[in-house]
Amino acid sequence: MKRQVTLDEVAERAGVSRSAASRVINNAPHVSKAKRDAVQRAVSDLGYVPNATARALATQQVGAVVLAISSDNPQVFADPFFAEVATGVNSVLEETELELVLQLATTTRGQTRLEQVLRTRQADGVMLMSMHGDDPIAQLAEESDVPVVFGGTPISFEPRYYVDADNRGGARLATEHLVETGRSRIATITGRMDEGAGMARYKGYQEALAMAGLDARRVGYGDFSEESGGRAMEQLLAEHPDLDAVFVASDQMAIGAMRVLKDAGRTIPGDVAIVGFNDVALARHTEPPLSTVSQPIQSLGREMARMLLALIAGESPTPLILPTRLVKRQSS
Amino acid sequence: MKRQVTLDEVAERAGVSRSAASRVINNAPHVSKAKRDAVQRAVSDLGYVPNATARALATQQVGAVVLAISSDNPQVFADPFFAEVATGVNSVLEETELELVLQLATTTRGQTRLEQVLRTRQADGVMLMSMHGDDPIAQLAEESDVPVVFGGTPISFEPRYYVDADNRGGARLATEHLVETGRSRIATITGRMDEGAGMARYKGYQEALAMAGLDARRVGYGDFSEESGGRAMEQLLAEHPDLDAVFVASDQMAIGAMRVLKDAGRTIPGDVAIVGFNDVALARHTEPPLSTVSQPIQSLGREMARMLLALIAGESPTPLILPTRLVKRQSS
DNA sequence: TTGAAAGCGCTAACAA
DNA sequence: TTGTTAGCGCTTTCAA
After folding, report:
1. Which residue of chain B comes nearest to A73, CA vs CA?
2. Which tens digits make up the pLDDT trace of A181-214?
3. Mean predicted confidence (pLDDT) in A132-157
4. Number of domains in chain B
5. pTM of the full structure
6. B19 Cβ nearer than 7 Å to chain D strand
7. A144 in the same domain as A204
8. Are B248 and B224 members of one domain?
9. What PANTHER family does the entry give (chains A, B) (predicted)?
10. With the CA atoms of A111, A114, A118 and A119 taken in that order, what torsion angle do they form, in degrees rounded to the nearest 10?
11. A121 to chain B: which residues are within 8 Å by CB?
12. Which of B39, B92, B109, B198 is deepest in the core (most CB within 10 A)?
């Protein structure tokens, strides 16, 4: 076990006191040029790298932030959505000295750990994704002394600091597009209504139809999964056989719905037009290619990280809502 | 800034010495039942949570492992492959006290940081993914005092500890399947040949054809990306217009290749049979659905984590190769 | 501009 | 079975 080079060794080698060496390392003032140079030479001669743990203990700063994903589904992270968020987060953290700790709070253990982080400052900041329903963690996070930024908004309250996509606006855009292309019996398949995104997309659908003076009561309920999309579509078809378009709150569900529609002998977009949400890679490859609402997922991650950095720096950033846009393909 | 509850406070409250309290916390022996109870009560009364940083400094163990992804492409993590690996890794780490730190070493800064971790033990262990070519990090990692397990094998050497999928076997399986279904002019589109997986899949293709006594010289070179698959297919079509099957080293490339084949008026699998590799979600949704080689990605992550834990515990685990299997769909 | 010294909160060796 | 004590490697007053 190779012992590490300590600050004392650097100081000795450079012939200065440890405090002087420390000042140089953290380039603080009050050090003469001569000593500064001597220390720097010693550092590179010895290959000195500060011990992060010791520094953390002394400064009471951890040097790490947590990206937490709270969900009951252990597979969440396999969702390309989160992977992209993580990429965005990482890209801004890479410019700093902060480490990125991943905390998937899917099991009770994970939850507990996240709670402890929040209560006892085991991290300099936390980014919290995917709160559904009245997740108690969300409340705890909002009240914690640790800086927290939310990704997406929980339904039970509006956090002080969050970054979200304009889900409502995106859903309106999609639904308005269906109206403009001449559809009049427009249904929707919702996502989980206990998640902010699910609810917001549903509201956007309602708004658009209300403004067009159309009936917004053709609704099937899903949970964002492909399978639930299929089920909801079957039910819609049974209850509203006259529908001529569907706004589906996720691409996965849209894929399930398209399958059911084809099986029922309906053509897309001839008989029924479809618009999805998220613009996952798959959307380009369905048959026909899926029109969908695209959200800037990486930016979401980047902005969350930036906001957290601002918070840690003692600033008071304002919440951010990122724009979504409609991507027209052949399914509508 | 709420101050944290210290061990001293617990000790005082319980009326015992700090060392006794410490022993209870780490449930070490040599504490009477009475004191043990007293301490436990104090802990829950005060809501004491040990300070991880202080503990790390005292024990010289960091309490965290890093999952490092070394690549020149900042988007790597958006690849569903890594997301799944991460899910697997997390699932076993969740059972331990170890944190999971994510280190995407795409930029120079990231690389440097990873180097420092390796050199100066800023983590208790490292899992290293996606080494391509003669990445110097790989060598450094292999020689590091820090326990390291590789995910996949670099081409330049065989690490002491690694988990890999049976890429070669999978490629053989796929190619043999093409032979068995009566194809005789079988081409391949390779992945990056400076990655272990790319090379192994190519070798598997060669082996299978050699054993069948067929010509293995219809080869197009790609880099795993969809676009490169398309280009390679175009070139293959130009050079070997008689081909009747293609083993493609990744599903993404297979998708690109299928597009080109269709544009060229070839039917799939009528004129040309296709088999991909990886079994990404997309493979189920192509037209026709893509036959492919499936590898247990989450298991890969889980086994990497398990192996690292073993290493940290001072054991000497043996490398692991996880089986792959052929998934037959309509493209072959 | 400099250095001595007192922590940060915990663990572990040692003595009692 | 107990408690005392000396660190872990760094930062940061404070006095010189």
Report:
1. B87
2. 999 999 999 999 999 999 999 999 999 999 999 9
3. 90
4. 3
5. 0.92
6. yes
7. no
8. yes
9. HTH-TYPE TRANSCRIPTIONAL REGULATOR GALS, LACI-RELATED TRANSCRIPTIONAL REPRESSOR
10. 60
11. 2, 4
12. B39
